[in-house]
Amino acid sequence: MQINTLILGAGAAGLMCAANAGPSTLVIDHAKAPGEKIRISGGGRCNFTNMHTDPGRFLGANPHFHKSALSRYTQWDFLDLVNRHKIAWHEKTLGQLFCDDKATQIVEMLRTELTRAGAQLWLQTALADLTHDGTRFTAHLEREGKRHTITARNIVLATGGKSIPKMGATGLAYDIARQFGHAVTDTRPALVPLTFSDQRFAPISGVATPVVAQANGTAFEEALLFTHRGLSGPAVLQISSYWSEGDTISVNLLPAHDLAGTLRTARQTHGKRNVTTALAEVLPERLVDHLSTDLPLGGNVGDLSDKRIDEITDRLRDWTLTPTGSEGYRTAEVTLGGISTDRIDSKTMMSRDAPGLYMIGEAVDVTGWLGGYNFQWAWSSGVAAGQAIVQTT
Ligand SMILES: Cc1cc2nc3c(=O)[nH]c(=O)nc-3n(C[C@H](O)[C@H](O)[C@H](O)COP(=O)(O)OP(=O)(O)OC[C@H]3O[C@@H](n4cnc5c(N)ncnc54)[C@H](O)[C@@H]3O)c2cc1C
Fold first, then answer.
1. What is the phi/psi pair of residue 379, to 5°?
2. Other Cβ atoms within 10 Å of 284 Cβ, number
3. Could you report the per-residue pLDDT of 203-250, keeping only the tens digit for each?
4. Does ligand 1 come within 6 angstroms of the Cβ of 96?
5. Closest CA to 380 of 355, 360, 365
6. Calpha distance 180→171 (Å, rounded)
7. Ligand 1: does its nearest atom lie under 6 Å from the Cβ of 41?
């Protein structure tokens, strides 16, 4: 079978690319259903984009690479598509847009667009091998026990990163990129809970509190959640992308509270109150109990000197912790790193060295913050490649 474009991976980026790459496009996936990560994302409601999408909210070795695609297919373009498909949505917080109903509406929308564009989707299909003769790619596919030989002018790598292997994540895009001479940067799990080998937070697992969490100079003000194995919640997931093994993190437990002022006032008005009781007015009680095993928080508020008040406040504003690890790819929302952007054209997403080879989505070394940014990168890079393919056809 001769086609114009073979897309490997029917996830967010591959489906979006297929909807834009013109007819004579085949998208394959080894899974039973397309867009499985879309389906489970955002607690089943898919945080499909973010109103505040901005290149500064993405990580990668080249901080400029993703600017072009993000500016040519924006969050407003995707929202327009969602509106045209009459999918109801709402802003949850911090510009994060979610479906009112079900994430599968986004998958259905992309399937409809793909069919409208004249593309085909083959599921439960595996790639056996891929070669290039200088003009065309030849791919051997295995589907329902049969072998198919496909020749295509273009190949799009859209098989994503390594996160959640149970859902079918593989390193296929990295392997093919390497086969065609592209470098792959070091990869690690990101947007992932951090762990402590001594499970010190197990007794307060389930407690959540607003914080400013910081790692290597980057800070996020959001909720922190204590878990059996360590720390989670949006603040921690965000800083996990800036944290590497051995690094410390700093947690400000009093992001919006003048604890020193409260304690000084309480010293006059409620001098007999326990320090821990006073702290429990601004922090969850179970957290205060836990902190008191580490910090000297005994005695009454009336006995606190100014110096002691400042010491307590400083410690709670800069609680320094050294996680021993992360939950890894098993639960990570994304993979940090990927195919190096050095030899990829940022306008078309095409290889500078192997004409006709395109790389999009999470497989590439572009990683967004938590909050809809990763899907926006999948949509923007998918459209960039799709439109470039149509223009060269
Ligand atoms: C639990 C969870 C929740 C998330 N929630 C959000 C969210 O709300 N908002 C947000 O912006 N981002 C979210 N993300 C991140 C987002 O899902 C990804 O960044 C995005 O799906 C990447 O799109 P992609 O197309 O590059 O890869 P994927 O969507 O992962 O698609 C890759 C596709 O390739 C297929 N594939 C892989 N290997 C092979 C192979 N060897 N042969 C054939 N097919 C293969 C896979 O089956 C898959 O269908 C979440 C991630 C997870 C894990």
1. -65, -50
2. 17
3. 999 999 999 999 999 999 999 999 999 999 999 999 999 999 999 999
4. no
5. 360
6. 15
7. yes
